[in-house]
Amino acid sequence: MKYSIEIKSLTKKYNKEVTALSEVNLAINQGEIFGFLGPNGAGKSTTIRILLGIIKPSSGTVKILGMNHLKNSIEIRKKIGYLPGEFLIYPNLTGSQILTFFSNIKNEYDETYVNVLAEKLQIDLNKQFGTLSQGNKQKIGIIQALMHKPELIILDEPTNGLDPLVRNEFYEIISDLKDEKRTIFFSSHNISEVEKLCDRIGIIREGKLITTEKISEIKSKQIQIFEIEFSEIQPRKKDFTLPNIENVDVSNKTVKFTVIGNPTHIIKKVSEFEIKKLITHEPSLEEIFMTYYGDKK
């Protein structure tokens, strides 16, 4: 298997008391879309800055497209596209001038593809950057990251400020790039977006990589959400403090909870009472995420 990103025992310490990353191991396959998830301050941005060679790790190794990320940084930069979390640049330049500026750095510019991207993202490249809304600034940032069709694309919260219709266009652009076997690594808080696009995700918290899993594997976890309305009794939260039950919420005669694993024991318990309504459904990726990783250390 050829890896576009290979990280081994990556650690970043800013001083004796602050460890931003701790022994992170991660391999991103060529041609996959990988979502990098975690709360603010978890280590997502630090990881991306190390991948780009902006900061150096305290220990560990990083390979980008098979090359050492520090020794071969100039060659690597030509083969990757990067969108930062907040894309800021000279406000007096037009979109076209900004893209020309970046094309001179990367020595590659596909004018036809730039025009295709601009049309799909609905952006006028002749307007000055400083006059644009946040969403339109983001579109310029997306185009500069993609315009040379890099082998590896690193995106930090790419759909910030985009309206729903433009987001769908962006998703189509990313899917087309995947079809061309390009690798996409992106950080996002939007779990539905990750569910829609990604092959795998990695979850990071407090500088440690908690898990890496395929989207299909996460969604296949045996989790069910129950909502039960009783006819007479007033349910109590403590009555549902049972093994494999989480996220218990009681309101009047209705209780809602998540069951991890086989629900037989809870069905037996509630069947002792008269039930007015019982609803169960498969969880979304966000509900699975919160159940497994939301409050756990």
Which descriptors apply to this entry?
alpha/beta, Alpha-Beta Plaits, 4-stranded antiparallel beta sheet, 32% helix, Rossmann fold, 6-stranded mixed beta sheet, 14 strands, 2 domains, 297 residues, single chain
Question: What would you say this structure looks like, in words?
Answer:
By secondary structure, the protein is of the alpha/beta class. The chain folds into two domains: 216 residues, Rossmann fold; 73 residues, 2-Layer Sandwich (Alpha-Beta Plaits). 32% of the residues lie in helices and 31% in strands. The protein contains ten helices and 14 strands. The strands form three sheets. It has a six-stranded mixed beta sheet with strand order 6-7-8-3-9-10, with helices on both faces. Helix 4 packs antiparallel against helix 5.
Topology (SSEs and partners):
Elements: E1 3-13, E2 19-29, E3 33-37, H1 44-51, E4 59-64, E5 67-68, H2 73-79, E6 80-83, H3 95-106, H4 111-121, H5 134-146, E7 152-156, H6 164-179, E8 183-187, H7 191-197, E9 200-205, E10 208-214, H8 215-219, E11 223-230, E12 245-251, E13 254-260, H9 264-270, E14 275-281, H10 285-293
Parallel strand pairs: 3-8, 3-9, 6-7, 7-8
Antiparallel strand pairs: 1-2, 1-4, 4-5, 9-10, 11-13, 11-14, 12-13
Helix pairs in contact: 4-5
Quick synopsis:
With 297 residues, the chain is α/β, with parallel strands linked by helices. It has 10 helices and 14 strands. It has a 6-stranded mixed beta sheet with strand order 6-7-8-3-9-10, sandwiched between helices. The protein has a 4-stranded antiparallel beta sheet with strand order 2-1-4-5, with helices on one face. Strands 12-13-11-14 form a 4-stranded antiparallel beta sheet, with no helix packed on it.
